[in-house]
Amino acid sequence: MEVLEVYKCTDKADGVAYAIKVSEFYNPRAVEEVRKHEQLKAHANCVKFYKAWEEGRSLHIQMELCNESLASFVERNVGMLNENEVWRILHHCFIGSGTFARQQLVAHGHQTRQHL
Question: CA dist 78 to 33, 75, 87, 88, Å?
Answer without folding.
Answer: 32, 5, 14, 15
